[in-house]
Amino acid sequence: MKGRLITAAALFWVAGLSATERLLFDDYYQHPRDDAQYGQGVARGDATLRGLSNFYAPHATGIPNGTFVFAELIAEKWVTEVSDQPISSELLEGVGGYMLVCPVRKELDGRANLTEHEADILEAFVANGGSLIMVANSVSDPDKIGFDFAGMNLIGARFGAQFLPTQTDTISVPIAPDHPVFDDVSDIIFGNGATITIAEKPSVDAVVLMASHREGVEGPVAVLITHGKGKVLMLGDAGTLGNAHAFRGDTDHAEGLRQMMFALLPDGPMPHYVWRLGTSLSVNVREEQVVSGYPELMEVFRLPHPAGAQVFSSAMRQIDLEASGASATAASSKDFVSAVAERSGEFLLEVGEARGGGFAVDWQIGDQAMAAKLMPNGRMQEGEMPRDQAGDDWSSVLMNEIIGGPLRSHAQPGERWSASTLARWPQLQLGAVARHEKTAGTFHFVGEANFAGEPCYRVKRVVELDGSDWSLGDLVDAEYATQMESLGLKVQAGGMLTVSEYWISRTTRLPVHTKVSTTATVWWEDPRFPARYVGSHDSKNYENWERTNFVITYGRVLEADFSDRR
Predict the structure, then answer these.
(1) Is the model's pLDDT at 349 over the cut of 50?
(2) Which of 154, 348, 399, 443 is in Cβ range 3.0-4.6 Å of 364 for a Cys bridge?
(3) Residue 488 in 3-state DSSP?
(4) Which of 237, 64, 211 is nearest to 135 (CA)?
(5) Cβ–Cβ < 8 Å for 150, 250
(6) Which has more pLDDT, 389 or 114?
(7) CB contact set of 69 (below 8 Å; sequence gap of 6+)
């Protein structure tokens, strides 16, 4: 950096193959001070010394507004460094982001005010692809506050937005489920901060991230602006980034901060699907479910299976199952047996007008249309309740499984990330309807791949579930759950692994093919076979007991092919 002094505040682990950007956290436009007297952000002296503190510094672990936790939250993509140098073109060479948090006015003993000179440099930095973060605080009277309100607004005006002299008080800001930037974030804590005004002319490419609903001080409090090749984040409260709020487990605050900062990153090659009004996709879905085990004394094999299901024994005897359930021969067999059920369906996905942050869509299932909202990242929301058996049988597949998401807008090939998803539990009767669990899935942008000659991007989703708390009654049709529970079977161990693969056209950014593969195993104890003592008293240190454990294995493969009907 040509002799510039940049001290590392945090250098953390990086997920997968994810590349990181350097983020300079300004400590120049603050009070001059001897950092040796401010360990963990706490002034070691009187009130005068305390007045020189940078309460928002990344090393400030001992105070609520320090950004130590914030730096760790974003470390997957941003490596935070503290800068004690003035803004210059040389300083910003090789830097991905620059962060100004409540700079101190020179009139109140700050090092320098922000001027047109700094505004010129930062405007060019953003236009060429850099990210600028400007963070303010509540402003009751611009002439009586300590931070450089005028200088911040001088810079903000270059991008079409400015902070207003307002005071919101601390509020919890709800985040709409269809927000174009946030995914699965319910709310974020916004401290006592300022609102932001966005210029109407010339038009500003801005997204309101959060807005105050406090009576009398309504308006945006966090704004993301695209300018040239780069982006600007303006946030009206510095305490929002503080250590204390980051631990609010009763909100989605921490994840919201991560997503807010990641939204500054440049788009990857597959940032989102391209849904348009009039898009019509024909979708052919095929599913095969298998349950395997030794049916003797396993009541789950005696329960009805779907019509047309087949049973294959270890001797490869094929037995057609009647709709009323397995035959006595199959249920009492001591051979290893696999029951197999298949089904298929043809559906239409019709994309309507843009609505909120997504698109209104209809799934055509037989004679009924099931309305939903489809997000650019691939999430389905607001699905209608099915109105017939076909809708019941297929709605969870169409809503939750066959379109891969949420995509990550800035993801590069090789990158991995985690996001909430719905996981389908095993269905030991091989029925169409199963329980689902909201859990975290690991997504992997594998990279470029071809499918049936179509140039695609390939994305994987991996979900693992611990089944030790399952009940066998949860893994069969609801009408037979009580019957299974009455047997007193106790699940000892179990688990499930689901790997979903999505091929997305590089040309149209629409889905081409989906494959979902699942395996699950359940171990249980049967009270009809209690543990029995089989040892002797030759040793006083241990006993030998014999216990009978039953095991069943479940497999499922679902595939979907998409074709554009336009």
Answers:
(1) yes
(2) 348
(3) coil
(4) 237
(5) no
(6) 114
(7) 242, 243, 246, 247, 254
Name the percent of the chain lying above pLDDT 70.
92
Strands 97-101 and 131-135, how do they pair?
parallel
- Report the alpha-carbon distance of residue 31 to residue 52 in Å, rounded: 5
In this prediction the pTM is 0.87
End-to-end CA distance of the chain: 54
159: nearest Cα among 107, 120, 113, 209 = 120
Peptide bond into 202 cis (omega under 30): yes
Q: Which two tokens stand for residue 456?
A: 């695609």
Q: For residues 191 and 221, what is the distance between their CA atoms, to the nearest angstrom?
A: 10
CA–CA gap between residue 318 and residue 151 (Å, rounded): 80
Q: Which residues contact 166 (CB under 8 A, 6 or more apart)?
A: 138, 139, 194, 195, 217, 219, 236
- pLDDT bin (cut points 50, 70, 90) of residue 111 is very high
Cite the beta strand spans of 236-333 per DSSP E. 280-293, 310-313, 318-320
- Are the CB atoms for 172 and 144 separated by under 8 Å? no
Nearest to 198 by CA among 238, 232, 150: 232
- Cα–Cα distance, 408 to 62 (Å, whole number): 34
Phi-psi region of 340 (alpha: psi -120 to 50; beta: other; left: phi over 0): beta
Q: Are 280 and 566 in contact (CB under 8 A)?
A: yes
176 Cβ contact partners less than 8 Å away, ≥ 6 residues apart: 356, 357
Domains of the chain: 6-262 (3.40.50.880), 280-564 (no CATH)
φ/ψ (deg, to 5) at 48: -65, -45
Q: What is the model's pLDDT at position 45?
A: 78
Nearest CA-CA partner of 186 in 411, 378, 420, 439: 420
| Structure tokens that stand for 239 in this block | 């305490």
* Residues 6+ away with beta carbon under 8 Å from 522: 426, 428, 467, 470, 472, 475, 491, 493, 494, 551, 552, 554
Q: Which residue type does 324 have?
A: S
Question: Token pair 């040309």 is at which residue?
Answer: 507
Helix (H, G, I), strand (E, B) or coil at 549: strand
Q: How far apart are CA 226 and CA 129, in angstroms?
A: 10
Backbone angles phi, psi at 484, to 5 degrees: -70, -40
When pLDDT is averaged across residues 247-271 and rounded to a whole number, the result is 95
**CB-neighbour burial class of residue 536 (10 A; exposed 0-12, middle 13-18, buried 19+):** exposed
| Nearest in space to 510 (alpha carbons), one of 415, 418, 438, 407 | 407
Confidence of residue 536 (pLDDT cuts 50, 70, 90): low
